[in-house]
Amino acid sequence: MPIILDNNVVQNLNGPTHAIFLQQTMQREGLNDNYLIFFGDTHSMDNFEPCYNDTNCTELQTDFIKMLNTFSSTTRTDIYLEYFLSKFRVVVPPHFREQVKNTLIDDQQIFYGLRNNPELKTLNKDDPRIQYIISEEEKKIRKKNIRSRSNMSELNYMYLSCFYKNFKEELCPYKNIIWQYADARKVNNYTSGNHDIETITYSSEFFAKFLLEHFTSSSNRKKITPESFEELVTYDESVRLVDLLKNIQLIINSSENYIDKLLARPIFQKQLNKMNEETKTIFTKESFVMLANKYKDLFRHYDFTGLNTIIELLLQFISLYPDDTIEFNKNLEPETDILSKLNSLSFEHKILEQYGYISYAVGNCAMDIYFILRIYKKDAEKTNKNLVLSYFGSLHSTTLAYYFTDIVKTHTTNFAGEAPRNLRRINIPDTITIDLNKMLDHDIIQESTNEISGESLDQDALKIGGTKFRKSRKSRKSRKSRKSRKSRKSRK
Q: Residue 368 domain-assigned?
């Protein structure tokens, strides 16, 4: 039994690695009522196979979005992606209009060709022509210099025009949906001015790579030279390395101080100012500190003394060159002394991996908190009843789900399932009818869990909006679990 979305039925959803459905149970005056759907991705195309002509399979990027657009004609529906707008596309000067329009059309058509090619939809999945069709479309993607492919990024490219007011009416195929970006890490792509929120996504990756290459205890270690250091400093021109390093220090040593810094930035203040006082008592600074700590808890190595030492030495070296240019003279001190100390440090590979991962937590918190503030701001002095769907990296999705169910406790889990490792297809065995207009009493009969598993939640019936759905056949496992619960209850 599947998702019921208006008159559409979705049994197997193709594309993401996992899905989590959260129903809001906290009801307060002035608080938006958000039914949350989190789709997670691995930032890759590993083990993905299109539906082809499988009638029991629903492609998220195409079929499901089309269903969602119909649903959105009567219910406000927001889709959030892990991206941000490009600066030159926000206000489109007349002489740029055709150029931008053509860019949007080209990007959309490339991925529409890959997803909606009629031959792909009709051929048997083992047909040799499939690989040829896909390879031809992938050549177009490479020509566009798309940095990395995933189902999430392809969804973004397919519906680029939907995110721009200037082009939505003209080019977007699904206008009922409210298309949103959630990535505060990339705010500098959107507008000019220094928001002091670093676009650190790429820099974090490069910093993690830098640690593994230059501080490993293995024999293939690369020595740190002025040239390699300059490459680190200048890798991402939109980011000052000193800011990234100081933020990593903050989140390692004091999550509270990092959250204070984050919330003080204009982009966050703008969202906070749109929240009423009741909402602010729920989504507090303390809850965001707990979110940051949740990310830190994911890293097995908790002694960050070595990383602090590396960062301190890197900051000392950077301070010698305030204009970010390195003109090294090997006969002078203290440059050689600092490099000598850096090159004397070595760590096991698994520890360096943890050091690299912690840098991602800096950006993850920025994105997640911005998303939370966005969906709970007030619009035109009224509260909203929304379906909020997000398609993020899997770590964002599972951590955000934990935030809503276990930290602020505003939601309960309706469904949590993941695709099998060899096929990116999520089976939804329980019936979930999404009808926010009827979700007033929140009368839900189910046993909730916050664990992500390949199987559905153990529930005999799910009642949403006054309509009760029962499984036609009760499994042996279900009868056994009910009997066990009854037995435990009688013993108490």
A: no
**Smallest Cα–Cα separation from 393: which of 12, 38, 60?**
38
Which of 325-329, 339-343, 434-438 has the lowest average pLDDT? 325-329
At 10-40, the pLDDT tens digits run 889 999 999 999 999 998 888 999 999 999 9
Q: Which helix (H) or strand (E) holds 244?
A: helix 241-253
- Residues 248, 322 within the same domain: yes
User: Is residue 193 in some structural domain?
Assistant: no
Paired with 415 in beta bridges are: 21
- Boundaries of domain holding 435: 3-188+377-491
Mean pLDDT throughout 279-292?
A: 95
Q: How many domains does the chain have?
A: 2
How many Å apart are CA 30 and CA 262, to the nearest integer? Answer: 25
Q: How many CB atoms lie under 10 A from the CB of residue 151?
A: 23
Same domain, 258 and 404: no
Ranked by mean pLDDT, which of 107-111, 114-118, 263-267 comes out on top? 263-267
- Last-in-domain residue among 363, 390, 405: 363
Q: Is the pLDDT of residue 475 over 60?
A: no
Among candidate residues 363, 394, 428, the one where a domain is terminated: 363
Do residues 220 and 274 both lie within one domain? yes
Amino acid identity of 114? L
Query: Which of 54, 83, 46, 81 is closest to 65 using CA atoms?
Result: 81
DSSP tally for the chain: helices H, then strands E:
19, 14
More reliable by pLDDT, 470 or 329: 329
Dist CA 277 CA 230 (whole Å)? 47
d(CA 178, CA 77) in angstroms, rounded, equals 6
